[in-house]
Design a protein that fits this description.
single chain, flat, five-stranded mixed sheet, 25% helix
Length: 191
């Protein structure tokens, strides 16, 4: 069966729309992977363990916290900055508080500035790797363990960095299934 001109055009257009949709869907994970591998856009690396090399040169790490509009939590760094040797493992804490009368789930996005330092800032463990759920009135301190890769001193741009700012933004997400069921049950008991 031969397709007429208009039928062939419609099939080609549908093919183009499907192809463009597939590329758009794949672009987000690809961009995320690209940023993590290259440190582009201030994305940080993830390490299994601390650095084997610790330099005598120090670097200052500042900590910043913000919330997406509508996120009901209070969120702040416990300490605003620390000075540490390059390659040394650091431990910092952020504090979150849920002042509402309901459980609230959140996820943190993060980056570092200047962007040239992103590929050299390595997280070993971080609260940002997992979603967080705070019960009504709950206050928690959440740790991040990290180091600045000694290779930063060899990088053409990053070797001039003396201060790195680690920024987190918390945004509200849907409660995990088990929490949502508990919340629905609590609402039914009060009605």
């Amino acid at each position: 069966m031969a397709l007429s001109g208009p039928q062939k055009t419609v099939i080609q257009l549908v093919g183009v729309v499907v192809l463009m949709g597939g590329l758009a869907w794949a672009s987000v994970p690809f961009y995320d992977w690209f940023c993590r591998v290259t440190g582009f856009g201030g994305a940080t690396g993830v390490a299994e363990q601390g650095s084997d090399t610790i330099l005598d040169k120090t670097i200052k790490v500042r900590f910043d916290a913000s919330k997406e509009r509508g996120m009901p939590w209070e969120f702040k760094p416990v300490e605003r900055e620390m000075e540490m040797r390059i390659g040394e493992t650091g431990l910092a804490f952020y504090e979150a508080y849920n002042p509402t009368d309901r459980p609230v789930a959140g996820q943190a996005s993060y980056n570092v500035t200047p962007y040239s330092a992103g590929g050299f800032f390595e997280k070993i463990a971080c609260f940002c790797f997992d979603e967080q759920v705070l019960q009504p009135g709950e206050r928690v301190q959440m740790p991040v363990t990290f180091f600045v890769d000694p290779e930063i001193v060899e990088d053409r741009e990053a070797k001039y960095v003396h201060t790195i700012t680690l920024s987190y933004t918390f945004y509200e997400i849907d409660l995990p299934e088990g929490y949502a069921a508990l919340e629905a049950q609590a609402e039914n008991n009060t009605n």
